Amino acid sequence: MNPGWTPEPGTPLNAEQVAALVDGTLEGETGQYFEHVRDLESATKSDVVFFRSGPNGIGRAPAQAELEAFQNTAAGLLLVDALTDASGRACIRVANPALAAAKLAQHWESYITETAMGIHPTAVVDKAAKVDISARIGPHCVIAAGAVIGAHANLVSGVHVGEGSRVGDACVLNPGVVLGPRVEMGQKCVVQANTVIGSAGFGYVWSGSEHVHMPQMGGVQIGERVEIGANSCIDAGTFQPTVIGDNCLLDNHVQIGHNSKLGRFVILCGKVGISGSVEIGDGAIFAGSSGAAGHNSIGPGAKIAVKAVVTSNVPAGATYAGNPAVDYGLHQRMQIMLRRMARKKK
User: Is 258 known to be catalytic?
Assistant: First the structure.
């Protein structure tokens, strides 16, 4: 292939082109053109599959059923690691088959819906709003006065952009997304349906007879290449913005309280709840239905287990589990002791 070769998105590829795209080494020959990445069981001869014989990213080796599925797959091309026996079938050797499959799937099956250039006739755009000529404004969008839509902003059905919001280049907001006042979004962000960004933070002061709301004026600052799932909420900060760093990934039904600050490459899985004024370091991961109480710090690279509740600071690189969350090793020992005690009661 020519140096710097880039295929037209969505086009079928032969084995040599697939190898070039994923930076792998082709073994064997096939004249087939390929169009999809599939799972081992449903793949056909025009599909590519991936398989890793050694431990995967979470330290688990393939189960016997997975080995049998790999041996019996009808796929025409395999993405495999150096240790996998391809049994003479056409394959491409790569360091990380799952990563290679993701890059290949992005070529063929991007989930980002394209919206026609310009403003759809059903969109409502305030006269005081500024919309770049290259922006993509889909059906039923509402853009309020003072909003600024940057070049190549991709807005699809039902988007509302609040006063003073800024949306960066090549962003995609899917149906029903709401951006409140003073929301700034960097380049190449994706927000899924019905997510609300910049709603008033949950800040109140007790007067002695009632809860008095403190106006939340800080907005939300979102970095570049951030992806936010459906039905998630990110509250505006009180005086300074709530911050979501570059390359963060937020799953569906995630709640982030006001004044919280996420570093880069943070992952929050489904139903994670982050209270106000929490600081999360680069590369930290919260598993599903876990959360953090307010005003705590989670160090870079920390991992919070499923349904764990963080009530104190977590050191960098640590793994915490339980409610209240403690070091994972301590949590496991506690569980063992409880099981032993329970058995003795019989």
Answer: yes
